[in-house]
Records
---
Amino acid sequence: MGVVRTISKSIREYKGYAIANPFFMVGEVACECTIPFVIGELINVLQTTEIGGTNELLEIAKYGGILLALAVASLIFGFLGGKIAAIASTGFAKNLRHDLFAKIQSFSFSNIDKFSTSSLVTRMTTDINYVQQAFQMIIRVAFRVPLMMIFAVVMAFSINHKLSWIFVCLIPLLGTILILVVTRAFKLFTVVFKKYDNLNASIQENVKGIRVVKTYVREDYEKAKFAVASNDLKDRFTKAERLVALTNPSMQGTMYIAYILIGIFGAYAIVATNNGDFTYGPLKTGNLSSLITYGIQILSSLMMLSMILVMIVMSAASARRICEVLNEKPSLHNPLEPVYEIKDGSIDFNDVSFKYSANAEKYALSNINLHIKSGMTVGIIGSTGSSKTTLVNLICRLYDTTAGEVKVGGVNVKDYDLDTLRNNVAVVLQKNVLFSGTILENLRWGKEDATEEEVIAAAKLAQADSFVQSFPDKYNTYIEQGGTNVSGGQKQRLCIARALLKNPKILILDDSTSAVDTKTDALIRKSFKEYIPSVTKIIITQRASSVEDADVIIVMDNGKINGMGTSEELLKNNAIYREIYTIQNRIGGGK
């Protein structure tokens, strides 16, 4: 019920459509169940009237008119019900996608770490499609099935209550078969959707790394890997569908048994009735025809019920996966009385320790104590995996500290409004991302209402204006998804320009000049020093030359501060920095 309650919140404005649909179903089913009764009466009348007589023609016309009216009414009710169900289900799916996407956007990095990208993509697409189909079947068919069974059984009993017990006795048999199949199928489909994640992961990894695949001529290997994931999904689905397929022959077999029994006992009843014997109850030929039709409606309703249950089973696994995301509580949230103003770009780390998971044995950061004055240029250097990025992620509150506190402008970052904090702390991440759209649109991510002059000024600071001006369309040049039509260095400079447009109090460059040459790197740092002296600049790098002129350099090692000082001071008293500096200068400096 918790899953249903969570999912149903996304129906919202389409609740009226979902509620209205059953009323049309009642009308449609009532018409469909009345038609066999009228046909049966027509057959009985034809047997008792003179063939070709005036009375017979009048009766045919009368019953024909009734049947036509019922058919038209059934068509109208069915059309309106189908239309309303389609509007409700598609609207529900739209809202569900919106809610799921909005929830993901509210996640912190620690929340996102719990779900793989491929899994989130599956939940946003395949899982929601299954839930949408199930919802449509529930509001359209699930209401229709019990109504049809009730109406058909009542009408059958009104014709001949003794023969109608044949249908009633067969219903529990079919119900037992359905319960057994559904119970087993649910477990199988739960596993199937995990296999979907594996398949999507294989596709995503291959597309993302297609250049590497082609460079190393590993297409055949990737094809084989994809084939394994695809065949595994096929095998699991085949096993689940094979089990579900048992419902159809079971239903058909039961239906044919019902026909045989109705045919045998019905024939006896008709003969007995004609001889004045009502042992089986009074029955005429037209009534037998109606009984058979009602039998078809009852048993076909059960077959439809089996389809609904199968769809619900498939969607139940999807619904659970969607609810896992919707019920995930963001680990970061605004305080009750947030601070909306940041005084300056000073940064303080007071006895800070951090680990990515509460169950993790090892801390990623341990006992960090650090004070950075506003406007300083700070370099952070260290070996791969020394937690340089982890350190700066705490400043803009992409993660929260496990112990200790981080302050910006003298205030604990947990006390700030999140939007205020992140608008004043601009981060250019290791993995630079540009979105599909023009260069101008990409840069305006930093400031939505930025004028073209402001954009150009930021691009000049990031040393990006020169190459943008070389493009035929300049700032209206279209960037492909992921920035695939610009080089790595150009992408980095555009990302830096985008961050500068925010006019931040703190600018963090996380290895964001690794793809540019040392001359351009020096020009970027020079422009920072000249044009944004009041902004606190934190530069994470593997290149000693990029932080050589920083006010202070922090050397990280194994999640701890190994040393801190100017380049000259660290060359004298820090072995790690001295080794990095010596090796890089020995081979000509930098990358």
---
Amino acid sequence: MNSKYIKSIFPIALLAITLQVTSCVGDLDVKPIDPNIVQDFDQDGVFAKVYATMALTGQEGPVGNGDVDGIDEGTSAFYRLIFTINQYPSDETLCSWTDDGIAEMNFIRWSASHGMLEGLYGRLNFDVTLCNHFLEMTEEDADENTVRQRAEVRFIRAMNFFYLMDIFGNVPFTEVVTSELPDQIQRADLYKFIENELLDIEDDMYAPMQAPYGRADKVACWLLLSRLYLNAEVYTGTAQWSAAATYAKAVMDSSYDLAPVYSHLFMSDNDGSGSVNKARQEIILPIRYHGINTTSYGGAQFLIAATHRDDMNPWGVTEQWAGVRSREALINKFFPNGNIPMDVDENGMVAAASDDRALFFSIGRELPIENPSEFLNGLSVAKFTNLRADGGAVTSSVWVDLDVPFMRVGEAYLTYAEALLRSGGSSETALNVINELRARSNAAPLATISLDIILDERSRELYFETHRRTDLIRYGYFTGTQYLWDWKGGSATGTSVSSIYNLCPIPAADLNANEKLVQNPGY
């Protein structure tokens, strides 16, 4: 990988780490590591940094000494970048900002020199390299604590490799920290590596719901396996529907359960800090934030601030960036007859959806979207807030306490139903599973089930949760003309885009730096 993208990584020692990670493994103040000075490896400090890569962007709080070079630090956040590539080009999300690269994302027009794709590629490779460092430094240790930490770090590494495989396909691959240029691994081979890693670490992970909140357990491993198997045909050419159903069912049958109130999953006390919000029973792996100790312009801050404008009801924080809102195609999932009422309920939300998941704000908004650069064209998404379900005070008026529910049980219900249907299993069981999920949100039961109905249900349940691009590719709908949505390809009514965009390009700068790499077709 090109060192342009990755800062503070050295063959012998790495990372100047100075962080306070109260939300991962306790308060830490880790001394900087100078590669020219012999210094003890701080195992707990680097372990904390591995988890911190999911939430934080550098060494000095929300800005300052960022992990990834060549991109605005706030934009370099793990979750924000995954959101950008999996949501902006989809039928759910449209961003009105005019920053470089946004239009290309909205309209599926990116190139090998796209800054946000470079940033995501750099972020994921940085995270993998950090994991490699930890695993190298602990490979001779067999105490119980280290064995468990190594399993969790291998899980985090597998998760980062999953996104590299999903988004970029054939990518540089190494399991060691080295100055040598890495070889390029084929997508199907990386799939097999990820599968083997997850299967191998399962026994060393925490039992379900026994890990400290914010750390991965066996159920997180099962859910990532179900994601992997659900998309196996895309990655390898061979479907694994039965395996996807098996691991999704394992998640459903675990000690985790659906939260009783859908909206509570996306509120600032979703960590169980109050007596009202029961979201913690559903959230398998959160990306943790705290308004004082863990702050970033990516992650939860981005989800809340980017979707809100000052004319909306209180959302628990002063930041309002007014950039990201829904496409009409998403709203149509809740109103399939095209009759979208613009009146609102007592909370300012769209009324008459008969589905608690329809968390949209319509006052002063217009549909259809005539101008993609106008935030008021398109309904606002009010799904994420910094409010507490118990009405209590949050820690900051500027920075959020909301934990991103990165992995949650609701996804497993949808994966199980789809995989069951695709594998020739019981359509009645698939329908019952979907209706059980809908009942949580007071949505009327469906009478029939099909793959397209499940895809729509995935949108209703998981919108703006970074799944949509991958889902559309699995269905064969992301490119081509089989499914058009507003502003697909830059046309108001939607138009076909080339199938090359089912994969993103290896950044041109890395191709220039590593002659072992071959670009994806079409770029």
